Amino acid sequence: MQRIHHLLEERAARTPDAVFLHEPGGTTTYAQLQSMVDVAAQDLLAAGVRPTDRVLLVAENCAAHIALLMACSRVGAWSCGVNARMSPGEIAAIAERADARLCCYTAAASEAAAQHARRAGAQPCALEGVMRSAARADARTEPDPALADTAAIIFTSGTSGTPKGVMVSHRGLLHFGRVSAQVRALGERDRVYAFLPMTHIFGIGTVLMAALTGGAALVLRGSFSPADVLQALAQEKVSNLLGPPTMYARLLAHIEAERATPRFPDLRYVYTGSAPLDPALKQRVERLFGQPLHYGYGLSEYAGSVFLTRTESPRTDTSAGHAVEGGEARIVGPDGNEVAQGGTGEIWLRGPGLMLGYFRDAAAAAQVMRPGGWYATGDLGRFGEDGALFVVGRLKEMIIRSGFNVYPAEIEAVIGRFEGVHQCAVIGVPEADGNEQVVAFIELKPGAALDEAALRAHLAGNLSPYKRPARIELIDAMPTTANGKLLKRELRARCA
Predict the structure, then answer these.
(1) Which of 245, 338, 453, 496 is deepest in the core (most CB within 10 A)?
(2) pLDDT tens digits along 230-253
(3) CATH fold of 171-394
(4) What pLDDT score does 160 carry?
């Protein structure tokens, strides 16, 4: 296999009548999805789409979205997925940065996408439920043969700045699909709850590619709903539940608020990623499901997770486990040299899933690439005695207080253990003397009240004075991206 659409073609040839997608409106077999890809590919070619053209997919998860992803692969175009719930201005900016030849909208499955389509003057295309814009004649193809393996451009969520277009390769996606399916022992009897947007690497790699590789079905949803998760676990034979930590936090809050009694007769694998894992949240999730909460470390610049915990050896800590096949990592200090065993430093990665670069932004790529093919992630981590990776936080989020390095994740873990705390986030706010003030934002459990004096006593018993928050702010709900990633820049804006 050389391209991602070959995965679907193989499944459609092997088990054409097997159901791949379970949606609220019905089911889709492999053969039916393959027919949709045939229609979509012909429509793209008829519209003038050529190899290396970018096709913007304004979408929410649905069968048509997956068909468009595979159709782009077949014609050699690069899909650029954007969540339909983004604002018109954000979508317009990404379309311009991608120099998109064409924009497609999954209008039938998403009212938000339909509204964007109407604003753009899009018209129905041959693939049912999809609208598309007129092709741009002035969009440029990419002549660089080194980029020919590009499958998709994933625009980073922009938690710390302007989104960049990560060029993800067919090789990387196919490799991680196989690795993830093997680690989870995915098979044809499995059903994966799939709300994670397939405009993001978590949704494309860990959900879609792995399911196709293992022959598992997807219980496909356009967005996250705690009530729907519980219904699917109880009635739709969901065996794999995956999502960011915020998904589990919201699910727990819903269960407590509704006094629900969850049932999950077929659930055998529970996983989280895409953000730091709080120990208190891990314990709560494991008590709920009665099984390990697995964890992994990956990012948009790598086609899937580079580190995963293993089902045969679940962790009692919050480590991201060990490197997957082909993945390599180093922990590097400010001088560019590896730190001593157990020391904290920047995580550098390389392997078959590494991006091909940032789309038309060589300067940005040069800032993060290092000699030997290493990618400097900007994340801080350390290796445990057994070689497992612990992610400490973001290099840019590290707080410098009184000359000491303060890692937000350490403080968040302590706050997370305090009674009544649902979620928390710690940031550094600059002070006039060049120091940084430690500020903690706390979202409480439903019906809980904060005893600040008791919390400060708890902090004093667990943290050195320079690590303790100077300010504690209550917040109704943590700001997140559509993928569930915490937006600390919005918290900084509140402080400003």
Answers:
(1) 245
(2) 999 999 999 999 998 889 989 999
(3) Rossmann fold (3.40.50)
(4) 44
